[in-house]
């Protein structure tokens, strides 16, 4: 992977908190962007999604919710 954009760095700096708290402190634009990124990872980049889960939600407590909501059928 290449270097993160400024937006990507910002997202990464708040990722753990956002996952654990369902982006409760996010602005509407941040929430929308986060959900879009997570949906892309879940549906098109399963290796990266699994790495993210392992790092930020190893128990699967929070990531299962995102998978239910954002997985394409």
From TrEMBL:
It comes from the Eukaryota. Gene3D superfamilies: Insect odorant-binding protein A10/Ejaculatory bulb-specific protein 3. InterPro entries: A10/PebIII, OS_D_A10/PebIII_sf. Pfam families: OS-D. This is Chemosensory protein.
């Amino acid at each position: 992977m290449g270097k993160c954009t400024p937006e990507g760095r910002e997202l990464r700096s708040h990722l753990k908190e956002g996952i654990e708290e369902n982006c409760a402190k996010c602005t509407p634009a941040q929430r929308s962007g986060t959900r879009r990124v997570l949906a892309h990872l879940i549906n098109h980049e399963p290796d990266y999604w699994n790495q993210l889960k392992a790092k930020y939600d190893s128990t699967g407590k929070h990531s299962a919710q995102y998978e239910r909501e954002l997985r394409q059928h």
